[in-house]
Amino acid sequence: xxENPKVDTGLxxxxxxxxxxxxxxxxxxxxxxxAALVLPHPHGGRAISLQERQLEVMRERHRALERRLAEMxxxxxENDAIGARLQKWTRQLLLAGDPAxxxxxxxxxxxxxxxxxELAMRLWGVREPYGDLEVARPVAVEIIQLASAMSRxxxxxxxxxxxxxxxxxxxxxxxxxxxxxxxxGLDPDAFGLIVLGSPDADRxxxxxxxxxxxxxxxxxxxxLSRMVD
Length: 229
Known about the structure:
Layout: H1 13-22, H2 26-29, H3 31-36, E1 38-40, E2 47-49, H4 50-95, H5 102-113, E3 118-123, H6 141-149, E4 154-157, E5 176-182, E6 192-198, H7 211-224
Antiparallel strand pairs: 1-2, 3-6, 4-5, 5-6
Helix pairs in contact: 4-5, 4-7
């Protein structure tokens, strides 16, 4: 009477996988095993050979790499377009001969080049020639203090933010806002504030990165510093 072969209960899938990785020539030495292997097709019920499955895996990886490359190209093109618009906006500011034109150039550039639907700006401590401009209207002390306390732009939902009332229709349509403090270089005290508003609640949210907004604020601050003491 013959004995049944013993089953090695310690032979796990992990052990088998590790053995095959450590012995890549296994199937070369045992071609009959390779030829006998069949696997279920990932997109159907039919069985395929190991070689076919490996080819399918390679195709899937190739498609994933193509999608990733296409996404990288798309992002690169978007960044190039944003950079071009930023350069054009900056050039307009540099070419402005009359400082009184700067607030409108800044707001119009943000509106048209960066698709910001609602905008407002206030400056305080402006020089006498610019005291009658719209942007020089009086600003509450609380808002001035808030702007000076900001180390970077702040974004979030419009929960009755006082500065948002500068926006059209007192900001009633703005569900999210971004506030950009304006200051001269490293001066801790702000001399102005730009408010961006959007009816899209997710356009300016608290978790978003502010690097681009900081760049906007720095360029605007450098230009507008000609108008303040």
